[in-house]
Every structure is written in C-alpha cells, then in structure tokens.
Amino acid sequence: MKSVSPSFAAALAGPTTQIAQLIAMYFASGVVALNSMNRPLDFGGVTYRGAAGLGEIGQINDSAGSEIKGLQLTMSGLAAELLALALADATVVQGVRLVIRLALIGSDGIVIDAPVDWDGYLDTMSIDADGEKCVISATAESSAVDLLRGNPMTTSNADQQALYPGDRAFEYIESQDGIPVVWPTKQYYIDSR
Fold this sequence. Notes:
This protein is of the alpha+beta class. Helices cover 16% and strands 35% of the residues. It contains four helices and ten strands, in the order H-E-E-E-E-E-E-H-E-E-E-E-H-H. Strand 9 (116-129) and strand 10 form a beta hairpin. The longest helix has 9 residues, at 80-88. The relative contact order is 0.16. The model has no long low-confidence stretch (mean pLDDT 78).
C-alpha cells in the first residue's frame, strides 16, 4: 500500500479536487513532461504540458508477488516538435528514466502534491506514421527490476578497500577461509574447574 502525505489526504477529503497524471521522460536532450489535462501544470520546478486525449498509459499493476510488470504508453496526434524529439531520440530511448506521478490539484488550479505512482525506464519505442496521423508507442520496465539483479560485491578485503580505503575489517578474511574452527567440548569446561 502506498502512503500519501497529510496535505494530500486532507485535500482528498476537501470539497473540490482534481486528479491528473504527470509523466516525465528524462531524455539526454531534455525532459519531456506531459500531463493528462488540457492545460500546463507546474510541479517541482517542471512544467508539464497538457496532453489530454493525445495519449494513453497502460494499467499500472502493483502486485505483491515476484512478478514485476512493465508499462505500455501510446501517443497520437502529436505536435511537430514532440514528433521531432521522438524521431531524434528513437535510437537512444532504452534506459531513459520515466516517472509517473498522481497529482492532486486544488480549487485554485495549483498542484497540492504529486507522489510517485510509477518509476522505471523506457525500453523500446516504435513510431507508426501513415502521412495523416502518427502514433508513438513505448514500453517501459519498472525500476523494481533492479532489485532482482545480483550484487557484484563480495566480502573480500579488495572490495572493502574499494568502498572504504584503509578499513581493516576484512583484512584476514581470505586467510581464514576453509580453516576449521574447533570449539571446546563440554568436557573442557568440566575439567577446567
């Protein structure tokens, strides 16, 4: 279960609230920030351009199991500059960070809070154009996939020195490897009295 800030919870209980999704894609050439409304929204120093009706985000599945599901994004009817950006970055889309936030907007039109709803990386992008309309489809994988990757570090002195130079915690760990440790038997304690 995701937790929300007290201001977010209080605004939800208020009489008039609006909710929008904020999508930020961090390309090398700049941030592409869009929202699900038809007007721009500012949050965290980023202006999210209104893209109501232009795109669709696949269902975000949070499961308690070990299966980590990706996400599908599609956009159609794009402005020329966004299409140009997609064409320019089509070859370098893999690994681009993608953050989706659920924004709560107050009656004054200002974003109250926007906790992260999904965080991950773009994987593939395809562009289908037929002369009249253009559809960009992208897939993304959750950053939770990183949790399934192993840690290349070991409990060796070399790795400890790389992390903390001068630390002697693992100095003798390799020389002690494979040496049997013999504990005294119960008889030792009886005889030593």
